[in-house]
Design goal:
The complex is a heterotrimer of chains A (about 325), B (about 375) and C (about 280). By secondary structure, chain A is mostly helical. Chain A has two domains: about 35 residues, no CATH class; about 230 residues, MetI-like fold (Orthogonal Bundle). Chain A has twelve helices and two strands. A two-stranded antiparallel sheet of chain A has the order 1-2. In chain A, a hairpin with a 4-residue loop joins strand 1 and strand 2. In chain A, helix 2 crosses helix 12 and helix 7 crosses helix 9. The longest helix of chain A is centred in the N-terminal third of the chain and has 36 residues. Chain A starts with about 20 loop residues before the first helix and ends with a helix. Chain B has two domains: about 230 residues, P-loop containing nucleotide triphosphate hydrolases (Rossmann fold, 3-Layer(aba) Sandwich), CATH 3.40.50.300; about 140 residues, Beta Barrel (OB fold (Dihydrolipoamide Acetyltransferase, E2P)), CATH 2.40.50. A six-stranded mixed β-sheet of chain B has the order 6-7-8-3-9-10, with helices on both faces. Chain B has a five-stranded antiparallel β-sheet with strand order 13-12-11-14-19. Chain B has a four-stranded antiparallel β-sheet with strand order 2-1-4-5, covered by helices on one side. Chain C folds into two domains: about 45 residues, no CATH class; about 210 residues, MetI-like (MetI-like fold, Orthogonal Bundle), CATH 1.10.3720.10. Chain C is globular and about 75 Å long. Chain C contains 14 helices and no strands. By secondary structure, chain C is mostly helical. Classes of the chains: A mainly alpha (about 325), B alpha+beta (about 375), C mainly alpha (about 280). Chains A and C meet through helix 1, helix 3, helix 4, helix 5 and helix 6 of A and helix 1, helix 4, helix 5, helix 6 and helix 7 of C.
Chain lengths: ~325, ~375, ~280
């Protein structure tokens, strides 16, 4: 029985055919929400809710006692207090400058290391493993280590400096050297991490582009700047973004190494907030500090997200 | 064992795209039905609707006489081979083949036995303990088939299963697939974009274009008796030469460019409808194999062209020529690339390898009018009666 | 013949081995200092100029860490909290990663972006309310408090990683499985999950490392000695006047070694995790 159907233009059905969402799709979508629900609930409850609560506290005359917190009405005095506070100004400047310097140095050093590693044939795996150790190290431990190195009386840093004729300064006792010391500790721990990311990016670059460049007569430096760097940019960009955003929360290192000092020389935004909340029990101002810090992070995130939306959005759907 | 019956099936997506339009098609028990057409013609969508992987917007689908529009794939008792085989990479060949049986809680002993039998049919016995990653493309394809046939389904669905194989292997596997299909004797729906595959494998071939079924028939009939311009241009390789022509006043000859071809009585008797087109323009189709050189044994009316290129294949000469006529294009039958490089009046002919012909010279063909096709220029329908 | 990619430094770094050696020094010297110092006696630790190699080599610090101080307790706490939190994150995160990667949900993209933003939130922003919350629940100085917080804060990144791995699985897998007759949950556990296993390892090692090294929350919520984790424990070794570096370093070595080994074993996953997010997403 052969049924031949030619192009049937006039369908006897009265209503035109409308695209309906698949019953199947709806079922799958519902399943999706069920699967994702536990994760979303946990994350929401523990992050979104407290964030909102933090904002609320920052806008109240908060008082904390043994029984809990009483909010005592709406006020913006916490914010005016914070925004006028010179320590906060310093903390903000310090955190930003600290972030910029460390990220730039890590980027440069990390790229250098990656370039070296990339040409390594034997032992690259072992090198990468070695590089992962500082990354996996507990920051507190790193702080203690460098604290010992910088120790005024018996630290090896002084011994080395002395040997090259630079005297034996009390590194952690003076603001400038303390800040530099802090940065060095951070850079030591994080550069290997950057190196690995850059190395992985380098390894994935297409080799034929380089061969074409060689044929076209491009020299070493020129190749590096005109080809390698642009091709690496997406890899670096996202890594830098995360690193910068994370650096705003700088806490562990200064807390253990310098305790925010000398004085308030190494008091980052997070340390300031922590001291305000848990040492001075000024929950209101402390929350204001915390919230402004979070806003800064959010701002940075949104700005960069717009730039990288093409990257993220491509596979977002 | 069952039949598949589609009645006025439509698929409209959420965004309004009408992928399949009023498809009516049936596949008999044990029949090998090939769905062929250019990409985007809706053949895969149709297949997926039969499988239950896509919802049917309207129309009825029956398997074994039962309406199955709302049934899940599992309930429909179908088996499918995907283009990428979709083998479970972390399971062995044996586990892959037996997975569906395991899900149906078949006793272990039965599973082992069935898997063993299936592996034997497909020549996979020594590979049962390997993982897909260790197999070649052809072997993976056979595992995919094994997974499908072990379940003894009512309907067998295949979505371009040979596209990922290299040319030589593909030709081999075509025969394999047919052999297996005949052995299990299950209604089979096979989708491909390759018309050669369609012609060599199908019991019947359904040609689709832009969601609409153009014609469904035995391969030979599609070749001899295409219903419209699209089918004529799509089926056959090299493709049919299609030209604008006009019928003479007495409808006794057809004028292609500056040349007039008298039509023999037999031809006019086969196409009585041509009489209505006296003095009108039509499209004429001449298959390359129906243009033997006049110096040979052909006795048809002459057609002369300028030779542009000669491809010597050993078994024949493929002659690319030009005549002073306009080509007719059937939209979608050829690729954009082909169209871009085609110029007016080009044609291809397959002639005897001994023919004396040189580039730049003229060649005359003795047109085999039995195979000639005629089409209405506006409706694109074939002209018969 | 190796396919050499000239990244442009060819002429500058001729001494490849020298440069590599410099890198090893850069990373290795402080590490050496850490390990060496852990074996110095208390008095040698304060030598000026410092001893470059411990003499005599003493394991007194290790003894002190476990006996005089409660490092054993801290180690146990860190282990329990990190393992449980990681297990939770992987279980819940895999389901979410699958849903957000392969199921047709509206608003998937916004969700992913939100999760991403949450993952970079500084802990200081939420530490105060969380402290109050946990205090009300009576979960300060407990396992469950920190575990809950760690789970929540590690989920976004884990979901991101898991989702990326899931996206790499061909779509036909679910369809084939469906045709074979498996339900959705069965499909995820039997088919998709084994194929996404590298992603699970990657997310797992990241999560574990994050929990092991976290400081701010642990400092705030679990300050009581019995519930301290390693970072807090080490930070609170000693008093304002004396910093027992020897013991600190001994404890540090013990803390670094297991995670170092783990990371070494799973380094392939760490590296791919670091780059998959950055490069292709």
């Amino acid at each position: 029985m052969t049924t031949i159907s030619s192009a049937a233009e006039e369908a006897p059905v009265a209503a035109p055919l409308v695209g309906r969402p698949d019953v199947n799709r709806k079922r799958m979508a519902r399943l999706g929400w069920m699967f994702a629900a536990p994760a979303l609930i946990i994350v929401g409850a523990v992050t979104i809710f407290p964030i909102i609560y933090s904002v609320v506290i920052s806008l109240s005359n908060a008082e904390v006692s043994g029984n809990g917190i009483s909010l005592n009405g709406f006020t913006t005095s916490n914010y005016s207090l914070v925004l006028k506070n010179s320590t906060w100004h310093y903390a903000l400047a310090f955190t930003i400058i600290y972030t910029l310097v460390t990220v730039i140095v890590e980027l440069v050093l990390g790229t250098l290391i990656a370039l070296v590693l990339e040409r390594l044939t034997a032992g690259r795996g072992a090198m990468m493993a070695l590089l992962l150790i500082p990354w996996s190290m507990i920051t507190v431990i790193n702080a203690e280590l460098w604290g010992y190195i910088y120790q005024g009386t018996y630290g090896v840093a002084d011994a080395v400096l002395n040997a090259v004729g630079l005297g034996s300064p009390n590194i952690l006792g003076q603001s400038t050297s303390a800040i530099i010391g802090l940065m060095i500790a951070d850079i030591w721990k994080t550069t290997p991490f950057v190196a690995i990311i850059v190395l992985a990016g380098l390894v994935m670059l297409p080799g034929d582009v380089y061969e074409a460049a060689e044929v076209d007569g491009s020299s070493g430096w020129s190749t590096f700047w005109r080809i390698t760097v642009p091709l690496l940019r997406p890899t670096l960009a996202l890594a830098v973004l995360f690193r910068v955003l994370q650096a705003f929360g700088l806490f562990d290192l200064p807390y253990v190494l310098t305790n925010g000092g000398p004085g308030t020389a190494t008091t980052s935004l997070a340390i300031l907030g922590y001291n305000a909340i848990f040492k001075n029990l000024s929950y209101g101002p402390g929350a204001a500090v915390a919230t402004t810090t979070a806003l800064l992070v959010l701002l940075g995130c949104l700005l960069s997200l717009r730039t990288f939306r093409v990257q993220v959005g491509k596979e977002g759907n | 064992m069952a039949t598949v019956d589609l009645q006025q099936v439509n698929k409209v997506y959420e965004n309004g795209f009408h992928a399949v339009k009023d498809l009516t098609l049936d596949v008999a028990e044990g029949e090998f039905m090939v769905l062929v057409g250019p990409s985007g013609c809706g053949k895969t969508t149709a297949l997926r609707m039969v499988a239950g992987l896509e919802d049917i917007t309207s129309g009825t689908l029956r398997i074994g006489g039962k309406v199955v529009n709302d049934e899940t794939p599992k309930e429909r008792d179908i088996a499918m081979v995907f283009q990428n085989y979709a083998l479970y990479p972390h399971m062995t060949v044996a586990e892959n083949i037996g997975f569906a049986l395991k899900l149906r809680k078949t006793p272990k002993a039965d599973i082992t036995a069935k898997v063993k039998d299936t592996a034997e049919i497909l020549g996979l016995t020594e590979w049962l303990d390997r993982k897909p990653g260790q197999l070649s493309g052809g072997q993976r394809q056979r595992v995919a088939m094994g997974r499908a046939i072990v379940r003894e389904p009512s309907v067998f669905l295949m979505d371009e299963p040979l596209s990922n194989l290299d040319a030589k292997l593909r030709v081999q596997m075509r025969a394999e697939v047919q052999r297996i299909q005949r052995r299990i004797n299950v209604a089979t729906f096979y989708v491909t974009h390759d018309q050669v595959e369609a012609m060599t494998m199908g019991d019947r071939v359904a040609v689709m274009r832009a969601g609409v079924l153009q014609q469904v028939a035995h391969p030979q009939r599609l070749y001899d008796h295409p219903d419209n311009l699209f089918v004529a241009a799509f089926i056959g390789s090299p493709a049919m030469n299609l030209y604008e022509a006009s019928m003479t006043e007495d409808a006794g000859a057809v004028k292609i460019g500056s040349q007039e071809l008298p039509l023999p009585v037999l031809c006019r008797e086969d196409h009585p409808g041509l009489a209505r087109y006296a003095n009108k323009k039509i499209a004429v189709g001449l298959r390359p194999e129906h243009l033997p050189a006049a110096t040979g044994t052909g006795t048809g009316p002459p057609l002369t062209g300028n030779v542009d290129l000669i491809e010597a294949l050993g078994s024949e000469l493929v002659v690319h020529f030009t005549i002073d006529a306009r080509r007719v294009r059937a939209e979608g039958a050829t690729s954009d690339d082909e169209d871009a490089t085609a110029h007016h009046g080009e044609g291809v002919a397959r002639v005897d390898p001994a023919t004396k012909v040189k580039v730049g010279e003229k060649i005359t063909f003795a047109v085999n009018t039995v195979g000639m096709q005629f089409f209405d220029l506006e409706t694109e329908q074939a002209i018969w009666d | 013949m190796r396919n050499r990619k000239r990244t442009g430094w060819h002429r500058v770094i001729n001494g490849l081995n020298i440069s590599a050696f410099v890198v090893v020094l850069f990373v290795g010297l402080p590490l050496y200092w850490l390990i060496a110092s852990s074996f110095k006696t208390a008095s040698n630790l304060g030598d000026s100029p410092p001893q470059y190699f411990p003499n005599p080599i003493s394991v007194q610090n290790y003894h002190d860490a476990f006996v005089t101080y409660d490092f054993g307790i801290y180690f146990r706490n860190s282990l329990i909290i990190s393992i449980v939190a990681t297990a939770l994150v992987l279980t819940v995160g895999t389901m979410a990663g699958y849903a957000l990667g392969r199921l047709p949900m509206r608003g998937k993209f916004s969700l992913m972006v939100t999760l991403l933003i949450i993952s970079v939130f500084p802990a200081i922003a939420v530490v105060a309310p969380l402290y109050l919350l946990l205090r009300d629940l009576g979960w300060l100085n407990s396992y469950q408090g920190l575990i809950l917080v760690y789970t929540a804060f590690n989920l976004p990144f884990a979901i991101w990683i898991l989702r990326n791995y899931m996206l790499g699985i061909p779509k036909e897998m679910e369809e084939t499985s469906r045709i074979d007759g498996a339900g959705p949950i069965r499909t995820v556990w039997t088919i998709i999950l084994p194929m996404a296993l590298p992603g699970v390892f990657t997310a797992g090692i990241f999560c574990f490392t994050a929990c092991w090294t976290e400081f701010l929350f642990a400092l705030t919520f679990n300050s009581a000695n019995n519930y301290r984790t390693i970072p807090v424990g080490i930070a609170e070794f000693g008093t304002v006047f004396t910093v027992p570096y020897g013991t600190i370093f001994a404890a540090s070595v013990v803390a670094v070694v297991p995670i170092g080994i783990l990371v070494f074993i799973f380094r392939k996953f760490v590296i791919s995790g670091l780059t998959s997010g950055a490069v292709k997403g």
